[in-house]
Amino acid sequence: MMKSLILGEYLIMKVYKLFLKLLFIVNLLVFCDVFAKESFKIRHSSNSNGLGSVRLYLFSDYNLFSIYVGGDNIRIMLELMSDRAIKLKSIDLMGSVFHVGYKSTMDELVAMYNRDGRWTAWGIDVYLASYKSEWREFIKQANGEDLQFCVVCIEVERMIEREYYFKISAESLSNMLYISDLLQ
User: Among 89, 63, 101, which Cα is nearest to 159's?
Assistant: First the structure.
């Protein structure tokens, strides 16, 4: 009698542990991208050509990567969380660098400005036309999966690289490129 009671308690504990493991796995799968999201906004003025803009916001944790498109140029704005001063070194899409912050010395990297622990850089201009074909190729290769921007910064005091990643859906990037063609 005592042996069957101990065996019953043992089985209950095993089932309970299995239930907790399954619950953990489900939570991990469901909530792993809770802080990664994107917002796509289009503004078009009147019936004239070239009067409009596309703004794409990518959020990762509490960081922001914003792309403003107006024809062949894009303007990038960053807001990155850091407890130390940072400067922008480079920005890439899927490992292909499309903006480098002049890179030879710390003084020549793109300055970022602190606003309550959020380091901001704005007005990073990129000539989009020179990257459109490469980005379209990335979209084809993605097969509907997400693409990823990587922002590399350098901590000023310790000279340590920090990387910030931002996911973008292939569909949103494709729409952004398509609309930039219409705005020309």
Answer: 89
